[in-house]
Design goal:
heterodimer, A: two-stranded antiparallel ribbon, about 65% helix, globular, B: alpha+beta, 3-stranded antiparallel β-sheet, two-stranded antiparallel ribbon, elongated
Chain lengths: ~350, ~170
């Protein structure tokens, strides 16, 4: 079955996979909002949302419905095209990153093998970095087009923050890549499946990556682009209705994706200890592995929330100081040590 | 200046040492504190289903009392209105007619008795001032209303049900 040289079955498989990945990341992001409020409640000795449905589980639906039916305001002096482009870009880039993450091993249906990864490209990590780098355009364009000085300030803050921390993030990753020798996420997971998790070899690198991930996701304590009490809300100040929802939603999708990425890079992805010793056959093992990845991701998401409700926000100069004067030198040192160790092992 | 108490403590302004400056131990400690709070007893009272326990002296909405035979205690002396610091109470007195002895205990009664719950500060002075045990404060508090006039409680709202009719 081919059409214009494309295997239709292959196309169908990929379309299904893409829809599944999109649906999962959207649903997880939806329930992140619920989880965030629950965790915040518990940490503050409250209960959190519990009115909509059992345990408040319908709360995200109610919130989404509310956002959809709210009046949509585009300020008179705003740049209409860019104003709409901002949240769309934020959402688009947030959804695109999920494409290269390996969500599981292969499933076997008869003779066909279905890899649970939309695209196993050999520059997986570079792709993620590129897309995440594009994500800042959503914030920049949104903040600029609002024609509001607070939004603009927040957008500038966001841009410089993401650029600064992307450097440290990339440098901390280089050490990992020197170790693994590949940019493909699938291969990185397979290596960890056979040996130890990468966090064992790269504890400092993981720590730096974690801090930078917080900054890239604009999460507390680095949530300066949306510092409510300084900027009246941040880059989405002029936004209302679902366009605001998209901005907030993109943040949660980013959080989900970066949690999954950290689990993949440093915590073995879909592999779990004694995976190949328990003697289960292919498909069940794959499903268990997916569960393992999901569990790790949820743990990271919880950690994101836990930190948010513990630490106060950084001051802007402290943020820059931490990024440039602490994280980047540390990442360089980490790189040097890793390189030296690799050379020492080879000789 | 001499210290009034010995509880004052000087602020430690020494520069932070290296361990303190990397902040990680402090952050860990903070995370530990918040983690403990995850499992604490929640302070929330799920209001419409649960209500908060009030102390026995709680001062809520007023009621006008009746005696055992269902007669109104209030004699419209106006002492509660005089005692009221917020001037929330107003009343009109009337004389008891022949044949109304089963309705009013005294020879004079309140034909109109109103408390403005928006003015009331729930101090309980009316309760203290009443010589006839006619006004009491209960454990219910003022419900919401759509209009201001809904907060002016008349005799219909205040009088407790007649113990004779209830049976």
């Amino acid at each position: 079955m081919t059409f214009l040289g494309i295997d239709l079955l292959f196309a169908l498989e990929k379309i299904l996979l893409i829809s599944a990945v999109l649906a999962v990341s959207l649903v997880v992001a939806m329930y992140c909002t619920w989880g965030e409020r629950k965790v915040a409640g518990w940490i503050q000795d409250r209960i959190g949302p519990d009115r909509a449905g059992p345990l408040g589980l319908l709360q995200p639906l109610a919130d989404g419905g509310k956002l959809f039916f709210k009046e949509e305001i585009i300020p008179t002096n705003a740049n209409r095209g860019l104003f709409i482009l901002g949240p769309s870009l934020a959402m688009l880039t947030a959804c695109m990153t999920g494409a290269v993450l390996p969500w599981g091993d292969t499933l076997t249906f008869g003779n066909t093998q279905v890899s649970l990864q939309v695209a196993d490209i050999n520059v997986g990590i570079l792709y993620i970095f590129g897309v995440v780098g594009l994500g800042v355009y959503g914030i920049m364009i949104g903040g600029w087009a609002s024609n509001n000085k607070f939004s603009l300030l927040a957008a500038v803050r966001g841009a410089s923050q993401i650029i600064s921390y992307e450097l440290a993030m990339g440098l901390s990753l280089i050490a990992l890549l020197m170790l693994t020798g590949t940019l493909s996420l699938k291969e990185i997971v397979e290596q960890q499946r056979a040996g130890y998790w990468n966090v064992v070899y790269q504890p400092l690198g993981f720590f730096l990556f974690l801090i930078c991930a917080f900054a890239e996701c604009n999460r507390a304590p680095f949530d300066l682009p949306e510092a409510e009490n300084e900027l009246n809300g941040g880059y989405h100040l002029e936004y209302s209705s679902m366009k605001l929802g998209f901005f907030l939603f993109a943040e949660y999708i980013n959080m989900f994706i970066s949690s999954a990425l950290m689990a993949t890079l440093y915590f073995g992805g879909y592999s779990f200890p004694y995976m190949d010793q328990i003697g289960l056959d292919g498909n069940w093992l794959t499903i268990l592995g997916m569960g393992a990845l999901f569990f790790k991701t949820i743990c990271f998401i919880f950690f994101f929330m836990w930190v948010r409700w513990t630490l106060p926000r950084f001051r802007y100069d402290q943020l820059m100081k931490l990024g440039w004067k602490v994280l980047i030198p540390l990442a360089l040192v980490n790189m040097l040590i890793t390189g030296a160790l690799i050379l020492w092992q080879q000789s | 200046m001499e210290a009034l108490t010995n509880r004052a403590q000087a602020v430690d302004r020494r520069p932070m040492n290296f361990w303190e400056r990397i902040y990680i131990p402090a952050i860990m400690k903070g995370l530990g504190i918040t983690f403990k709070h995850l499992f604490r007893k929640k302070a929330t009272v799920r209001f419409p289903e649960e209500t908060r326990q009030f102390s026995p002296v709680f001062r809520g909405l007023h009621v006008l009392n009746r005696d055992e035979e269902g007669r109104e205690n209030c004699t419209a002396c106006g002492l509660c209105a005089v005692a009221c610091p917020a001037e929330a109470i107003t009343m009109e007195a009337a004389e008891r007619k022949e044949g109304e002895e089963h309705l009013y205990r005294e020879e004079k009664y309140a034909a109109r008795y109103e408390i403005n719950m928006l003015r009331c500060i729930f101090c309980g002075f009316c309760e203290e001032a009443c010589p006839k045990d006619a006004i009491y404060m209960t454990e219910t508090f003022a419900p919401a209303n759509y209009q201001r006039k809904g907060f002016i409680y008349g005799k219909d709202d205040l009088l407790i049900p007649n113990p004779k009719e209830k049976a």
